[in-house]
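Mods, move this if it's the wrong board.
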Amino acid sequence: MEHLNTIYRNFDIRGKFGEELTTEEVEKIGYAIVGLFKASKIAVGRDIRPSADELFAALARGINAAGAKVLDLGIVTTPMTYFVGGKNDDIEVTVMITASHMTSEYNGLKITVEDAKPVSADTLQVLRRIVGEHTYSAESVVSNIEEHPVHEAWAAHFENKFSFIDTPMTIVVDPANMVGVLEIATLKQIKGLTVHAIYDEYDHTAPNHEANPVKLETMRDLGHAVVEHGAVLGVAFDGDADRVGFVDETGQPIPSDIIGSLLAGHLMKQNPGAHVVYDVRSTKRLPETVAVLGGTSVKEKVGHTHIRKTMREHESILGVELSGHFFFKESHYSEGGPLPLLYILELMQHEQKPLSVLAKEVAIYAQSGEINSHITRPAEAIFTDIKAQYPEAEVETIDGLTLVMPQWWCNIRLSANDPVMRLNVEADTQNLCTEVTETLLAIIRRA
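Not the wrong board. Structure tokens:
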């Protein structure tokens, strides 16, 4: 089956529903998961896409046919599935039916195993081979599905940990009409927190903007709402609410690596000598912050499976991706839903400073932001030309090509999901950042 090579990706299974990702395929996946992971109980959640119920029924049928029980989590966020998998030792596998920020004609499966560990790209390829090579059919299947609501326990988890009653705060939340709507109720239960929301009714078409906070244009309305309500900050969730984006009290977006640096500083004070993992695109202020506080930072390849695996190896307290993923040891080395927001609010409470001031204290370097380029030459040819342009640079190849110079660094890498090359530059001054960025783009885009 030709489509098997396209829907089994590096970090999940994903494709256009009915064309690439079919109910027949997903039923086979359900059957195969049971055997591959020797599972007897599998928890399954889903977002609000039109195909979610059909895919749940197909997946559950396959799981039941293989002899395992399905715990139906209902409509949940992806971090909620990690919470269930991490808190329940008798649940061997969790599956989230979602395609994250992609449009609603797409759907997919995010799979984790014991203690919310994500399956690797290699494991997904094993699953692909099992599904593609083995004949499976079940004319009649005895249903074994049990409802397993999670929202109450999820909300209580945060309510018991955080309180802002001594320093009341107002925030604005933008779930972009997707499943992050659930986190509004979670946040409203926290004492001392006043929560306003925009685009808070379910609509799988995301009519107001794409549910993708890494794109600055999706944060404009949130910024306006923050200023209108006099809020201390605003937070936006992506399609399955495992990524978050921030705006400060003036409505200005704050890059995720700057938020990550603030989180690292805050958590390091509570965990002296701890490890933090960050992706190759993140500001060098992050490892500098960790080092000043006596900790150790580890640079890792982009992608949640890479970050989370390395975090487990070092028992790291925090993982940061520039795309807005924040991973925490306390949430089973996975995304914590509203946890990064609540820790930032806690930091603001402790420091008695607005987010804009805290961010400026960290953001001392000039950044290009991530710039995408469609390329017409092989990546290796581009990398060779770039290294020739800067022969004195220190070279790293953790993920793509990273060059490190005394006053600047850059990372150039191919996207795992799109046919583009991505560039990030950081320098001591804006003029130098602009100069290096323009030079690199000319090489990257050369015919």
